[in-house]
Recover the amino acids of this structure.
């Protein structure tokens, strides 16, 4: 049976949403897509159903740039229950171990902050989307199967720990892509000798975008003019250096041709703008070559001029 093609209107841009607890990230995306009657929508990296916080939702041409934020640094505020370990590392799982929580002094927290800052190694949890021989680990975990996982290097740029009460630990974290906050809090709990699991997780930041800029999902869905929350596509890439193109360079890149540029001290990804200040995408500088990495469509550029 052939499914009918999903219909919708061309809506292009980004909406920063404060994801509520209890919903999947995809469910949030689909509610917004339906509310704006948009043809295409996606997000820039899923949050667990338990988690809340910043979820950039991409519409139309903006979906091309979601990968940029998948690779970006992120910030979180995590709350963990000390003295209990669960099979999932969070409050959605079953308690598998209980331990007495030791007295934790300020110097203990300072030592943990130092120990778990910088480049560290994490073993991906079984309840994750990481694949083993093509199968997501969480599917194996739900069947009671556990497989060996190789440690992965991640970077904890900032870590600040506090203890609101004797059986609770809070962490403000800014970290690199691929960091599992569940694992970080479990490892800190193990270092304390009592174990821990996450009870709340709030994403505060993605690539310089703040949850303070986000709209509540309920507010957006109930608004008669939800388009007012739509931001420009290049909202997603403001953390990248800006590169201004002349007309010839813009034409070449939009038609798949690299351009030669003057030698520059920096290399790597840049956000690209045409002579009129119109955003055309993300490029990469390699020596004296500027190549396209991800561009808006020529049709979108032409329509933007109209």
């Amino acid at each position: 049976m052939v499914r009918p093609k999903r219909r919708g209107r061309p809506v292009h841009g980004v909406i920063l949403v404060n994801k509520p607890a209890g919903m999947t990230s995809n469910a949030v995306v689909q509610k917004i897509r339906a509310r704006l009657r948009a043809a295409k929508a996606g997000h820039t990296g899923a949050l667990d159903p338990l988690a809340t916080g910043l979820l950039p939702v991409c519409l139309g041409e903006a979906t091309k740039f979601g990968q940029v934020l998948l690779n970006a640094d992120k910030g979180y505020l995590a709350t963990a229950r000390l003295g209990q370990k669960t099979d999932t590392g969070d409050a959605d799982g079953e308690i598998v171990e209980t331990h007495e929580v030791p007295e934790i002094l300020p110097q203990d927290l300072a030592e943990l902050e130092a120990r778990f800052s910088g480049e560290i190694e994490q073993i991906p949890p079984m309840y994750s989307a990481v694949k083993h021989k093509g199968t997501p680990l969480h599917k194996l975990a739900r069947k009671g199967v556990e497989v060996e996982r190789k440690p992965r290097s991640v970077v904890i740029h900032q870590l600040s720990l506090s203890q609101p009460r004797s059986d609770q630990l809070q962490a403000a974290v800014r970290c690199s892509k691929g960091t599992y906050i569940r694992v970080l809090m479990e490892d800190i709990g193990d270092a304390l000798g009592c174990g821990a699991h996450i009870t709340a997780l709030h994403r505060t930041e993605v690539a310089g975008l703040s949850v303070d800029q986000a709209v509540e999902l309920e507010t957006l869905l109930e608004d008669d003019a939800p388009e007012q929350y739509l931001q420009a596509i290049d909202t997603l890439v403001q953390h990248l250096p800006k590169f201004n193109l002349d007309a010839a360079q813009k034409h070449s890149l939009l038609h798949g041709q690299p351009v030669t540029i003057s030698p520059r001290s920096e290399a790597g990804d840049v956000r690209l703008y045409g002579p009129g200040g119109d955003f055309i995408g993300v490029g990469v500088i390699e020596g004296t070559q500027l190549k396209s990495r991800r561009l808006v469509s020529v049709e979108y550029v032409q329509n933007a001029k109209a």
In short: The chain has three domains: 13-71+209-235, 74-199, 240-305. The two ends are 40 Å apart (CA to CA). DSSP finds eight helices and 19 strands in the chain. The chain has a mean pLDDT of 90.
